[in-house]
Amino acid sequence: MNMSVNTQRITISLPDYLYDQLMANYSRGEVSKVMSEAAEKFLIDKKIETKNDPVDEFLNFAKTLKFPKMTDMQIKRAINKGRA
Amino acid sequence: MKTVVVDASLVLGFLIKSNKIAIKEFPQLLQSEKNDKLKIVSLALLPLEVANGLRFSHSGREMTASILEKFINLPIKLVNLTDNLLIQATDYSYQNKTTVYDTAYHLLAISRNATLLTCDRKYYLAAKQLNHIEYIG
Q: Which chain A residue has its CA at the smallest distance from B71's CA?
């Protein structure tokens, strides 16, 4: 992770048990870095999950498609084109 | 669980954005299937018809390939018609003056007590008396 990027300050709430584990393992100065890495990992995993879902992948891709206007009849002709 | 049969006119009506109802309904069908609330079935012919439809509807080679790569991974169960259903589909096609291709999708729906969802108005009007069909449009 590139730590020289611009940052935004946010306030987050953690369950006590997570907070305790965090504080037991890292100093206060390290918390932001740890939480950034955790968020980044979560978002990357989420993206991969989405990418691997065939329905989401198909629907997301379909949103990007641009065709000239066609009627249902023209589409039907395209489906059947070449058949005797 | 409810079962629907989809044809190439519905898939392409969604992809090409020619049919406002298909644009709304096809994603809902896929999401319902994903959540185990619906089963989507079609003929093994479906990917071929979708590919030919894209081939002849202003879709370039690369775009068509990209669409098909994603399309073939969708949770649509593709099946072949049994011999008996093929004969029955052919018979119905004579009766209703429709193509065997279109009627085969419909017979698949009838045989599974399902509903064929189609954007093909001409076929719908010719065969709606057989029931098990819904016009999307």
A: A58
Interface test with B, best of A49, A79, A80 (most B CBs within 10 A): A79
**ipTM confidence score:** 0.90
Q: What is the largest CA-CA distance in chain B?
A: 41
Q: At A76, list the tokens.
A: 């039907």
Using the structure block, give the residue that is written with the tokens 């016009």.
B135
For chain B (137 residues), the mean pLDDT of every run of 10, in chain order, is 96 94 96 95 97 90 93 95 94 96 96 96 96 95
Cα B112 off chain centre by: 14
DSSP notation for B44-108: TTHHHHHHHHHHTTT--HHHHHHHHHHHTTSS-EEEPPPHHHHHHHHHHHHHHT--HHHHHHHHH
Query: Phi first, then psi: what are they for B4, rounded to 5°?
Result: -125, 150
**β-strands B133-135, B38-43 pairing:** unpaired
Contact B57 A58 (CB under 8 A): no
